[in-house]
Amino acid sequence: MTPVDLAFARAYHAVGSLVAANPALMGFAGWPAATPAQKSARPIPAADLLKTWSDGHIAATQEVRDAVRDLSDFANWQQTYTAEEVGQDFLDRYGWFELVGPEGHFQSQDIRAYIAYWGENLYYPWHLHEAEELYYILAGEAFFEAEGAHPITLRPGDIRIHSANQPHQMTTGASPVLALVLWRGEGLSGVPRMGTK
Ligand code: ZN
Description:
By secondary structure, the chain is an alpha+beta fold. The chain has one domain (3-186): Jelly Rolls. The chain has six helices and twelve strands. It has helices spanning 3-20, 23-29, 45-51, 59-71, 83-86, 88-92, and strands at residues 35-36, 94-101, 106-107, 112-118, 123-128, 132-140, 142-146, 152-154, 159-162, 168-171, 177-184, 193-194. A hairpin with a 5-residue loop joins strand 7 (142-146) and strand 8 (152-154). The N and C termini lie far apart (46 Å).
């Protein structure tokens, strides 16, 4: 194994251990035995921000957070939106990569597991998607709103589930947020769209 392969394997096992230790996470979609895939590094500005931010986690999330930091230069980072949709500042300080899933660093057709980062003082407007979604906060905090649900500030270890096509939005305050995002169900290969319908 190369050092990069080892870094990804460490992250895959760290997230798997986190999921297995948490009944709410395990009950959402389990954790698949996924096959490593060769994905090219696709760096974005947020990857550097993530590496230089070291507080805001809890003991249960430290292993995942450290593993993510160590592979940040090698991840296939993505951004769903354009500058026209969310603004350039948002794009400069946000990103995600698919650790496990149909397009992930580890291949599975059963779930998608993303690692996602947003910098401080960002507003992620209303959007929705068909797949059911679970947010688990690894570090930092953010204010979550969803149609039909009470607004809530989520902190490390907290969970929020969005049902199929339930519109939701998120706002960060003084702190960035790093989250594990799980998808399951219909629309697994779909993408979010802006708006509330
Ligand atoms: Zn979502």
